[in-house]
Amino acid sequence: MDRPRADGTTTTTQGAGSVLRGGTWIGVLERAAVYASLVAGWPEGIAVVLAVKAFGRYPELRAAEDGVRTGAAERFIIGTFASVLWAGACAAVVVLVR
User: Fold this and answer.
1) Which pTM does this prediction carry?
2) Closest to 33 (Cα-Cα) out of 76, 77, 81, 87
3) What residues have CB less than 8 Å from 22, skipping those under 6 apart?
4) Which of 8, 40, 59, 84 has the most C-beta neighbours closer than 10 Å?
């Protein structure tokens, strides 16, 4: 399915997944680590998870942004934000129910 972009071009959902390979697995592991650190009472773990993810993705994001606007950085930021919010909400439910 083609989606229009703000710059007048279109992007496909299949093409979006190829920009940041492995995003599904990285997201699952990120949510699990954030959830575990919050439930364990170690909120500093979120900073560790985000730092490891950023260092791991930096070369790929840098290469994607050199010369061609792929939107990889925006997908990375939005995906990370949504992932951390989701894991935090799940952890909050567990902590409040305890």
Assistant:
1) 0.75
2) 87
3) none
4) 84
CA dist 66 and 64 (Å) reads 6
CB of 22 closer than 8 Å to CB of 79: no
Secondary structure E strands in 1-98: 2-4, 10-12
Specify the residue for token string 């997944």.
17
**What pLDDT digit, counting tens, does each position of 29-78 carry?**
999 999 999 999 999 999 999 999 999 888 877 776 676 677 888 888 99
* Measured distance CA(53)–CA(87) in Å, rounded: 15
